Amino acid sequence: MSRFIDLARKAAARRSRLPDDWNDWRQVDREQGPRPFQVLTVTSNKGGVGKTTVATNLAVYFRALREDLPILLLGLDDQTTIDRMFELGPKTSGETMTSALRARSFTSAVHLGQYGVHYVPSGPDIAELKREISDPFYLQAVLHRTDWHGLIIIDTKSDLEILSQNAIAASDLTIAVVTDHASLTEAKKVFDLLDTWKRPHERARILLSLVDRRIKFRDSESRDVLSLLISEIRRLDYPLFESFLSRSPKVESLQTNPAGRTLSILNAGKGSLVYRQMRHLADDVLNVLDESRSAGGSRGSLVAAASRLLRGDTDEFWGDPLLNAGAAGKVESPAVEHV
After folding, report:
1. Cα distance from N-terminal residue to C-terminal residue, the chain
2. Of all residues in the chain, what percent carry a pLDDT higher than 90?
3. Is residue 334 part of a domain?
4. Which of 229, 194, 196, 199 is closest to 211 using CA atoms?
């Protein structure tokens, strides 16, 4: 009995920390008026696909490509990768993702970090919010109250529970990271969510990550794992990026070093294949975001090229041209880089 009372008290304490109208935001209020920011979410319901690597390194590349674009990075996870990559000094007490979400604004929790990227420190107790939030549009309202002018990148936990749903619901563009058939199956759930909210599939795009083109198939029309996944995505008629990211021990090594920091691909991965691929990806994502910002504007070359790929009308180059055989057989695909 005492244990039950204890649990009830803890639940009551959690509720008491939330505003009375925590889950009472009408969608018409949430989406009212133009936003001074855009939101990019990187997500996957499967772990180990390189999701956090994509989110954090895109933030760095965006700052390098557009120095005048303010970047705010948010992590809906209890891991500290974002802190280890961007914090400029020793950790100090203060607001975290958890406390800022409860306060309905990130304004006072934002820190300026490495590479000119702003971020909010991770919340080790952020999982508690999964029991406190039921509205998938709450984060969108919090972002409006924060009034950030620029781009917001959200890295989600490897699930599609309520916090991840909040990130997708708030996004202008969601990157669904896929590395194999299992993660592709999970990516379908992102598009199912968009269907539920009556939003077009173009609000999300699949990114093929950790692709190892040494994996070959003898008795198949698909020559390797990349072409196999592309073929399946075409069949499903889902939007996807022209760029993809190869598996690279060099990139994996950036997570572990004597300084205990997470190093960026832009600064510590020069000369690697993924260094160039990430540049292509950053350009592609910025193009899509630019197009989504221009109401009624042209769909642009990226979207048109992706559509042609999905229809199977043409052979397009994916990421770096050196990674493709080419329509006329002019270039050969090199082995995946390991240094």
Report:
1. 59
2. 62
3. no
4. 229
Q: Are 119 and 73 in contact (CB under 8 A)?
A: yes
Asked whether residue 185 is assigned to any structural domain, the reply reads yes
b/e map 204-213, b = 16+ CB within 10 Å = bbbbbbbbeb
* pLDDT for residue 32 is more than 70: no
Reported confidence tier of residue 212, pLDDT bands at 50, 70, 90: confident
Rounded Cα distance between 105 and 99, Å, is: 9
Q: Are 303 and 226 in contact (CB under 8 A)?
A: no
Task: Select from 330, 293, 304, 306 the least CA-distant residue to 37.
Answer: 293
Q: Give Cβ neighbours of residue 185 (< 8 Å, ≥ 6 apart).
A: none
Domain harbouring 120, CATH code: 3.40.50.300
Of the two residues 294 and 103, the one the predictor is more confident about is: 103
Cα–Cα distance for residue pair 92/83, rounded to 1 Å: 11
**β-strands 111-112, 118-119 pairing:** antiparallel
Looking at the 3D structure of the chain, how many domains does it have?
1
CB distance 146 to 179 below 8 Å: no
